Amino acid sequence: MLGDIKIVEICGIGPGPFCAMHLADLGAQVIAVERGEAVSVTGEKKVSKSVMNRGKRSVVADLKTPEGRETVLKLVESADAVIEGMRPGVMERLGLGPEVLLARNPKLVYGRMTGWGQNGPMAQAAGHDNNYISLSGAMYYCGTEGEAPSSPITLIGDIGGGALYLAIGLLAGILNARTTGKGTVVDSAIVDGSAHMMQLLMSMAPRGGIQEQRGKSMHDSSHFYGTYRCADGHYISLGAMEPQFYALLLEKLELVDDPRFIRQWDMSRWGEMRSAFETIFSSRTREQWGELLEGTDVCFAPVLSPQESSGHPHMVHRDVYFERDGMLQARPAPRFDGQRVTPGATPIRGEHTEQVMESLDANGEGLWA
Predict the structure, then answer these.
(1) Helices marked H in 29-163
(2) Pairing of strands 109-114, 81-84
């Protein structure tokens, strides 16, 4: 889908590489500029691969040298976008900031991936996913009353609020550049993206769906939306919000005539009803609950590990997961015309350095596939 889009990635960690991988998964041509060759603890060179580089070409360059900087400058001359995830000011100190690169290529879209953003009181501070989503408000409701909020790994921050927002920003910038001939700088901050992701949840406030106090909203205290421990120690999830789904859930649990559950939205009794559900769901195994509830309109799913998920009939049918390079991987998403996509191979670090350098020496002829 993105076969004519050319991206130079200045490799870092976390959301930047994921963003570039996602675009490569969708067909973009990505050249990953990595740091010096991998070396073992004994000082010997070693083969190094990162699954975040699947579908990309890998080039090794030292950006602290004139030769390394010139490599990047030559690459961006014919690129649509560049991705970097350094702290604010680092690329400028390397001589590869937006002004320099846009001077080489006025149509370039310069994508900047950070946690705090390019400016603000915390812009220069170190941080990680859980810090960014804490400040933005996105972690606040991740948990129940009386428990510490729990970070949902890197999904809300690094990926949701970071990598995917950067990808959208880059594509929007490229479309604009192709229309106007003018590039742009995309400031993608995880605090911005993760706050924006809260908009759907916050839209529920006027009708009482969410409260300011933790443990008082549907998502963190109701009995019909949450996770429950089963007899075997595994968990299941429920999301029976709508009245018809809730009615079916009560029917399946044989609770239709139980007066405790008649008033679904009586928040004063949610604690009592949730405790009752905890007892009920602890009486059977996850598999047994799946046999009763999975595939029905009660809005049910087992809580699975990635490895378990890869073997679930629905996931197998959609061919979501596959194994390569000795590890479980997920296929690109979304799909187009119903076709699943197998991502490109994962290169060894620096595998394409010689090929790319030869193309640059030939004035870029044949640089992009």
Answers:
(1) 66-76, 90-93, 98-104, 129-136
(2) parallel
Is residue 28 in some structural domain?
yes
- Average pLDDT over the chain reads 92
**Most distant CA atoms of the chain, gap in Å:** 80
Q: Which of 25, 80, 129, 158 is catalytic?
A: 158
Residue 245 CA, distance from chain mean position: 30
Cis peptide upstream of residue 343 (ω within 30 degrees of 0): no
Examine the residue annotation and report whether 129 is marked as an active-site residue of this protein: no
Q: What's the rounded Cα separation, in Å, for the pair 267 and 273?
A: 10
Answer yes or no: do 37 and 132 share one domain: yes
Chain segment 247-263, per-residue pLDDT in tens: 999 999 999 999 999 99
Clarify whether 158 is annotated catalytic.
Answer: yes
pTM value surpassing 0.90: yes
Q: What range defines the domain where residue 14 resides?
A: 6-198+331-361
The active-site residue out of 128, 219, 312, 352 is 128
Residue 19 is inside which H or E element, if any? Answer: helix 15-25
